[in-house]
Write a structure and sequence with these properties.
Length: about 100
């Protein structure tokens, strides 16, 4: 699994989603022993009984990242929104700080 160590997860929700995705990946992962025989089998390898007739995954994405839909439906602008000025509101908040 490629990991970019420069990135930092600042959002707890995205961090938890990535942790759950990696746990799902590890649960589906089958590790074949490097060598045949008893000496080639290591601690984390999958048993031979589970490795029979395993199909290789050739998909580009093993576990796709679920992207939320960010589309908002169009609506009419209300009279209150037309009268309000975002610039004036922000300027007032800056002076109150």
């Amino acid at each position: 699994i490629a990991v970019d160590h420069r990135r930092r997860n600042k959002c707890a929700e995205s961090l938890q989603a990535n942790v759950n995705r990696l746990k799902l990946y590890k649960s589906k992962l089958l590790i074949f022993p490097k060598k045949s025989g008893k000496k080639g089998v290591k601690k984390g390898d999958t048993p031979k009984s589970e490795l029979t007739n395993v199909a290789q995954n050739t998909l580009k994405e093993i576990i796709p990242v679920e992207r939320p839909t960010l589309r908002a439906k169009a609506r009419a602008i209300t009279g209150e929104e037309k009268e309000a000025s975002a610039f004036k509101t922000l300027k007032k908040e800056r002076t109150n700080m």
